[in-house]
Amino acid sequence: MKWTQVEVPTSARTQFLDITGAVSSEVAKSGVKTGICYVYMPHTTAGLTINENADPDVARDILAGLARLVPATGDYRHAEGNSDAHIKASLVGFTVMVPVIDGRLALGTWQGIYFCEFDGPRHRHVVIGVTVE
């Protein structure tokens, strides 16, 4: 399997960044025609998801929904001020897997891979692996 790290700088406390282009670029560089692309988040206050990338309101709605479910302040025991970020990251998840077909990510028409920042701004990175079938 070929692994690489891609830097993802964020500019807000909560933010969805479409990283589909960066992941697609790594798939192309790998030369894999048929296989699986793994994207892993080595952080505990950020996540990864696949969702619609045609309408930016979808990402805003997801962030707003998560903020309603898990408010920034509450009766949290973790006293570093980012308890909500840990919970949101756990709800969203830390990995995505996408089939690679004909050397390309087999995403749906409206799908994109999103880096989900819940405790920014920070300088983050994701780990991308591409394996041959």
Structure description:
The chain has 133 residues and is of the alpha+beta class. The protein has a single domain, classed as YjbQ-like (Jelly Rolls, Sandwich). The protein is 26% helix and 39% strand. The chain contains 3 helices and 8 strands, in the order E-E-H-E-E-H-H-E-E-E-E. A 5-stranded antiparallel β-sheet has the order 1-8-3-5-6, covered by helices on one side. A 3-stranded antiparallel β-sheet has the order 2-7-4, with helices on both faces. Strand 5 and strand 6 form a beta hairpin. The protein is elongated, with a radius of gyration of 15 Å. The termini are close together. 29% of the residues are buried.
Report the strand count. Answer: 8
CATH H level, superfamily name: YjbQ-like
Determine the CATH topology.
Answer: Jelly Rolls
The secondary structure category is alpha+beta
The CATH architecture is Sandwich
What is the number of domains? 1
What is the mean pLDDT?
96
Strand order of the largest sheet: 1-8-3-5-6
Largest sheet: 5 strands, antiparallel
Give the fraction of residues assigned to helices: 25-40%
Shape assignment:
elongated
